[in-house]
Specification:
A hairpin with a 2-residue loop joins strand 3 and strand 4 (67-71). Helix 2 packs antiparallel against helix 3 and helix 7 (211-229) crosses helix 10. By secondary structure, this protein is α+β, with helices and mostly antiparallel strands. The N and C termini lie far apart (55 Å). The strands form two sheets. It has a five-stranded antiparallel beta sheet with strand order 1-7-2-5-8, with helices on one face. A three-stranded antiparallel beta sheet has the order 4-3-6, with no helix packed on it. The model has no long low-confidence stretch (mean pLDDT 87). It has helices at 2-10, 120-134, 138-153, 166-177, 185-192, 196-207, 211-229, 234-240, 246-257, 261-268, and strands at 31-38, 51-56, 60-64, 67-71, 75-79, 85-87, 96-102, 115-117. The protein has two domains: 31-153, Regulatory protein AraC (Jelly Rolls, Sandwich); 166-268, Arc Repressor Mutant, subunit A. The protein has ten helices and eight strands.
Length: 269
């Protein structure tokens, strides 16, 4: 109470009774907030018109546009609207927390850098965000989210981008545009006008796996995603993964997961 009294005593009568302290010019609260957890990578790179925060539970590598960014537990990846993002399938960990939201303009409290790291205060604010979100108290959740951003602002780190070669970037782009056809090394190499052996070598060196393994991982992720989240039939999912036969697809899926597609859907949907 003594401290409070001292603060009150410091307040003086204003010169203008109609002009007070104003909020920052671009201040807006986060709206249409979504918070969820993922432990898988989506089938294709994506972008949307929402701000996205990604908080990993372990080491992982995200692809922002054509640049990979290494993340670890305690990092916060801040993705602005419209930026392409993709969790690399060779990441050691897939588990991560998402917070996405909309604003009518870019608020001044959002850090300029893509990558931040939070400490004790940020952890407290994050816990409050989750508490209010789960309780359905959206306004309080938005307030705590603003506090969370302010706690990150002074500790944001410059993004250390390890650029990938134009060849691998074009290869990844081609693969993700043709996943329903099971692209192979020779087809991709012809499209890029290079030798298949050179493509195999460069891709394995930069991505950490062969093109065939990478394509198989993408098909597996597509299948898991649709088995968990959509009402597509097994035959439709098989076709989406490039398999003309439901039996070949089922054999592939069981080899990778130890479960048939139907069993996986029953357990994880």
């Amino acid at each position: 109470m003594d401290t409070l009294k001292k603060q009150i005593d410091m307040l003086r009568e204003p010169m203008d009774f109609f002009s007070g302290k104003r909020l920052p010019k671009n201040f807006v609260l986060p709206d249409n907030i979504l918070i969820f957890h993922h432990d898988f990578t989506v089938a294709n790179p994506l972008s949307h018109q929402r701000f996205t925060l990604v908080m990993p539970n372990g080491e992982m590598s995200y692809l922002l546009d054509d640049s990979p960014i290494a993340l670890k537990e305690g990092d916060v990846l801040i993705i602005p609207p419209g930026q392409m993002r993709y969790l690399m399938p060779n990441s050691p960990c897939y588990s991560r927390l998402f917070i996405t939201f909309e604003t009518p303009s870019v608020p001044e409290y959002i850090p300029e850098n893509n990558l931040g790291h939070f400490g004790e205060n940020s952890v407290v604010f994050l816990k409050n965000i989750l508490d209010f979100y789960l309780a359905g108290k959206t306004l309080w959740c938005a307030f705590e989210l603003v506090k969370f951003f302010y706690s990150l602002k002074n500790v944001t780190l410059p993004v250390k981008k390890e650029s990938i070669s134009p060849l691998v970037a074009k290869t990844l782009s081609y693969i993700h545009r043709h996943l329903e056809k099971i692209p192979d090394n020779e087809t991709i190499a012809r499209h890029l006008n290079i030798s298949a052996s050179h493509l195999r070598m460069v891709f394995r060196r930069e991505v950490g796996m062969s093109i065939g393994s990478y394509v198989a991982e993408q098909h597996l992720n597509i299948a898991k995603y649709h088995l968990r989240n959509r009402s597509m039939s097994i035959s439709e999912i098989a076709e989406k993964c490039g398999y003309g036969s439901i039996y070949a697809f089922s054999a592939f899926f069981k080899k990778k997961t130890g479960l048939s597609p139907n069993k996986y859907r029953f357990l994880f949907r």
